[in-house]
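Same chain as my last thread, 442 residues:
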Amino acid sequence: MRIRKQSVLLSFLLVSLLAFSAHAEEMTFDLEATVNKALKDNPSIEASRASALGAEEGRKAARGAFGPKLTASYGYTYKDHKKNYRDAPIYDDDYYSLGANVSQPLFTGFNILSTYQKAELSKESAELAKDQTELSLILNVQENFINLLIARENVRSAQATLERLASQLKVTQAYYDVGLQPRIDVLRAEVQLSDAENSLLQAENAREIQRTRLNTLLNLPLDADVKYMGELVYTPIPMDLEASLNFAAKERPDLLIARKAIDIAMKDLKITESDFYPQLAASFDWSRMGDHPQVDGSDFARTEFSEWEAKATMSWELFSWGTTYYAAQRDKQTIAKLKAEEASTWQEALYEIKSRHLSIAEAAKRIKVAQKTVDSAQEAYRMALARYQAQVGTNNDVLDAQADLSSAEASYTKAQGDYMIAIARLYNAIGEKNPGLSTTGN
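reply #2:
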């Protein structure tokens, strides 16, 4: 019995361990997984999806106008007295009626067709708006993820700075204790160490702020223990300027939305101009009457108490004091305005894509310069420290070299982060969704 209890306990612990491991795996995200999680759970995406689904239902509703309409009616009428003719009643004082009507539009001056095409374009525009929202969210997550990587590197650099200054303070204190260095060197080393502690606290706070921001973008609790994995890496530029412009012309959502807006305005013009044309329709009516709820005739209609008729009608509004004409002119001006806005959107896209390429090139050059600066600063610090330990250099030389090294590391980290952010912004500018900033296929 005891062995059985131990077996059950071990099984429970094993299941708990597996569940904990699965949970831990779920809460570990690299850049691509972080973006995909945001695309799945961020409320702004849910709102854009609902809008796109609503536009699809609107398209289906417009499609229904092509088919016939069936209307049924059932009524009861009561009159205060019977109608008599030469002292003989000619109908009852109350009667019931039942009717049905089927109507089918045959030609509406392209109104129904244009309305459906407009609804279809509106659906496509809503889907493009969803793509635009997704692109904005992707860039937002990527920028914050990269800023988190920058913050982590700043924490690491601040910790290294703190360790170097703490070591320098010990050495300076030891030299002072044996009378080899003045008290002011110890005091300055202490000040530098305090400043480094403050810098570390600020760097750690910035890191936690970025973690919290990412949690909110992923629709997670603010204090969720999520492990965001990644490093600041250099990746080749995805495409040259010409290829970027060609890609943007085909894929950038705001450009496509602008073009859809022109198409929709042209359908509005068609709908307005439909009033210039005749309207053709067909209908079929069936009815029956009676003096009982069963609607089965009366003393005045023992037979033929039901009837049907089919008809076709044409109507044409020949004159309306220019209402339709001027409405059509208004729609044409709207189309002209939208075409101008589409051209302006394209110009803004050209500028944005060009500026993204320039930012990438600038950040790439800064990375090379900063890397050389870090190497030089590390060597300068090593030499200053060696000279100080050999008593041929000063404490100020070491502290200055340490400050230069910290500054060089910060510049290098910022250049790396700026480069990755510039790459992310270029993808956003051309309209490509690339959650992990992968260069595969480019």
